[in-house]
């Protein structure tokens, strides 16, 4: 691929700026603070902001100047890092790596799910619907684990290109991020339908067990393949602006990789993640029967485990604590009982509080309320290993300064409680 001088110079100018930022002493300081928190010896609450879908308001497409689509995506990656440094006053450490994702294509489960509103699905904005393909028990026999196509040639091409353009400024490496979690209930719902699964747990439990068995085997197949093919990457270090461990945090730790690590990354050298947002209304017993027991063999393969995302876990914390020996971090969502979480988690786990994104995503923002809720949570979680993570923000009302102000307020309060 021939890269025009225009695109090349844009990327090199941005990469040089990122390299300067990555070399600042504050990055090492932040990395150590994360190691302290993840090691359950926090010096203060840690603060993070992941804009996610709202990035389009912070670094809009109109600000990008590269012409080639791939290089344009790299430009966006670099501009996000600079925006993070310049405008988000949190504890995100920026490193000198430039990650190129492995090019991988996954097949379907044998019965493809038909989505309505594909554009919204791919863009991550708007709503969509789907037609679950498993209409009856006999359809389960038509399912199989997904095929995995690894495009080594395209991955190598992109790595060579990135090294050619950026290699003297940033350290280019292949990144093998697997997937968000080993939760599997999202796939379950896509195959069978949300309402139908809720009914099946009472009227047709064998069908749910059959589906979850298949999904567990499929996830194990993915883990085995990615590990065998050398496509896993350590996640015990600073991340890209769109990447994280758990449901939104930094995984810096001296406890990973495992003591017998020889350079070949295995799940036990990494953080893993479990969640079941689709089972938000399912009680503890059914959650254990139809979700957790299938997740446990997969979670047990990882070195350290994060659990939870947006679902409230206060009624399920005992199950998680009793069944996941390598559990280290638990998500305390905006819908979770914060007092119960503080009592159950104490100083034994990282208390990962996710404030309601609506606090900063509404038509207007009540900054006094933002500060009140944050102070209240810090008091509730006193004695816990607290991190505060703002994420799932679909919009800042086209007012990017909202995120800056939120991070300034929250970081100030975190310093006050150090």
Summarize the structure.
With 418 residues, the protein is an alpha/beta fold. The protein has helices at 5-22, 25-38, 55-58, 69-87, 118-123, 152-166, 185-192, 194-203, 205-228, 284-299, 317-323, 338-345, 358-361, 367-380, 401-416, and strands spanning 46-49, 97-101, 104-106, 114-116, 129-131, 148-150, 171-175, 271-274, 304-307, 327-332, 350-353, 385-390. Helix 8 crosses helix 9 (205-228) and helix 9 packs parallel to helix 10.
Question: How are the SSEs ordered, and which strands pair?
Answer:
Layout: H1 5-22, H2 25-38, E1 46-49, H3 55-58, H4 69-87, E2 97-101, E3 104-106, E4 114-116, H5 118-123, E5 129-131, E6 148-150, H6 152-166, E7 171-175, H7 185-192, H8 194-203, H9 205-228, E8 271-274, H10 284-299, E9 304-307, H11 317-323, E10 327-332, H12 338-345, E11 350-353, H13 358-361, H14 367-380, E12 385-390, H15 401-416
Parallel strand pairs: 1-12, 2-7, 8-9, 9-10, 10-11, 11-12
Antiparallel strand pairs: 3-6, 4-5
Helix pairs in contact: 1-4, 8-9, 9-10, 14-15
Notable traits:
418 residues; alpha/beta; TIM Barrel; 6-stranded parallel beta sheet; 15 helices; 12 strands; 12% strand; globular
Element order, helices and strands?
HHEHHEEEHEEHEHHHEHEHEHEHHEH
Task: Count structural domains.
Answer: 1
- CATH class label: Alpha Beta
Q: Within the CATH hierarchy, at the fold level, what is the topology?
A: TIM Barrel
The pLDDT mean sits at 94
- Give me the secondary-structure category: alpha/beta
Number of helices: 15
Radius of gyration: 22 Å
Major sheet characteristics: 6 strands, parallel
Question: Could you estimate the helical fraction of the residues in percent?
Answer: 40-55%
Give the N-to-C terminal Cα separation. 51 Å
Shape: globular
CATH architecture: Alpha-Beta Barrel
For the secondary structure, the number of strands is: 12
Low-confidence stretches: none
The spatial strand order of the largest sheet comes to 1-12-11-10-9-8
Strand content: 5-15%
